[in-house]
Every structure is written in C-alpha cells, then in structure tokens.
Amino acid sequence: MNTSVWAGEGAGQAGTERRLSPAPYERIKRYVVERIADGTWKPGDAIPSETVFAREFGVARMTVNRALRELSAGRILTRVQGAGTFVTPRDHESPVLEIRNIADEVALRGHAYSARVLGLDASSNAQAMAALAVDNVPVFHSRIVHYEDENAIQYEDRYVNPRVFPDYLDQDFTAETPNHYMVRLAPIQRAEFRIYARKPSAQIRRYLSIDIGEPCLLIWRRTWVGDAIATTVHLWHSASRFHLAGTV
User: Fold this and answer.
1) One pLDDT digit (tens) per residue for the chain, 248 residues
2) Does the structural domain 102-238 have CATH classification 3.40.1350.10?
C-alpha cells in the first residue's frame, strides 16, 4: 500500500510531498484494514488475538490494544468480551449516520489515502464562534483536501472549539485526520447533521478537480463532547464520485 502523504501547505507556501513513518499502532491498523480490503478477513471473521499481533509486530499489547480499540470506535471491528475481535459486518455503502475516519474508509476499499492541508489557524469568524457557542475566544480553523489514490474525494472545512481541543493547531493532519485525532482524545457523545445539494464555488471546484456545472453533495455536521460543542464541519464531495446510503 502506498503510504505517501501530502505535506501541509501554509499561506504563501507551496505544498510538497513527503513520507512519514507511521507509529506502531498505525502500522497495525493499516495491516488490519488491508487484510479486510483484500478479502483475507471477511465480515464476521475473527481476527488474531492481541498476543499474536504483539508477537508478530514486536510491540507491547498496549500498542495493539490501542489500534484495535480505535478500529472498533470506527466500527471497522467489533470486540466481544470473552469471545474476541471480529470484522464488523457492513453494507457495501456507508450508512449516513456513522461518523468514520475517511483514511480508514479509503484503505478498506484497497486504495491509498493522502491529504493536503490548505490552512490551519485561529479564526474570529463570528458565525463559527456562534455555532460552537464560544464567546470572545478565537476558534480553530482547518481546511483540508482528502484524496483516494490521485483523486480528490472530499474538501473539509472545519472549525474546532479550542477549549475542547487546545492542541489542535499543533497537529500534522497529513499524518492523522482531524476526525481520528479528535475521536482518539475524546469520543463523540452526539451529533447533528444536514445534507444539501450545492453548486460549489470556483475555489472548491479547483480543490476537487471537478468541471463547471457539476454539483456537490455537502454534509454539514456538528458534534458534542460532553456538554460542549466540539466541532462544526462542512464536507464537500463531487456528486459523481460520492453517494450516501443507509437503512432504517
């Protein structure tokens, strides 16, 4: 699997590509999703124990536990007390209400994930501050394009509550997605979302490499950690490359 990622692109700086050595727990996660993607482990199959992973990768069981716990949080795996860890049965299409890590979704399809950071800074945007219920404190703002192989599949425009994630601006979001970072630190308690069909701006068309006139599917989502609003995000997708499905 190609593990190259895009380096961040700040104001006045050109984006460059660089390779990052994944942390041990990330190597285990990638191994698991690759085995699921290539059909080695099928939905409902049990995967090896933490002890086996620890021996094969030469790491502590705590490292393995973190990897499997995060994949379970993303509903890629299901852990059953006393029985083991299993590949979560899933439909071919991702349910609308599930909040998954886009990097894991791309890996499950057998493709390479990468990201380009367009901006990561503090913002005094009044609308964003109101949406996060934050008064008189700048919020954090990130703009990222997510890729599947060479294709841009999502433009993410996110505002984050600095009181919930004070170190957000110090993160390398070419190595870890914002979703993964936040869920790793503080699991989401609840979320609200809206879905729109929208005509993208010229700038968003360039980010997603789509033609004039092609519509986008826009997902707006706001999530809570405890009683605090943690983040609000607009996710833009080319209508020709993305669709949502679900069952009730």
Assistant:
1) 333 333 333 333 334 344 456 788 988 998 998 888 788 898 888 899 999 999 999 999 999 999 998 888 777 888 877 778 888 875 434 444 456 788 888 888 888 999 999 999 999 999 999 999 998 899 999 999 999 998 999 999 999 999 999 999 999 999 999 998 988 887 777 889 899 999 999 999 999 999 998 999 999 999 998 889 999 999 999 887 765 554 44
2) no
- The radius of gyration computed from the CA coordinates of the chain, to the nearest angstrom, equals 18
Question: What's the CA gap between 232 and 191, in Å, rounded?
Answer: 10
Task: CATH 3.40.1410.10 in the chain: give the residue spans.
Answer: 102-238
Give the DSSP letter of residue 60: -
CATH number of this structure's domain 24-87 = 1.10.10.10
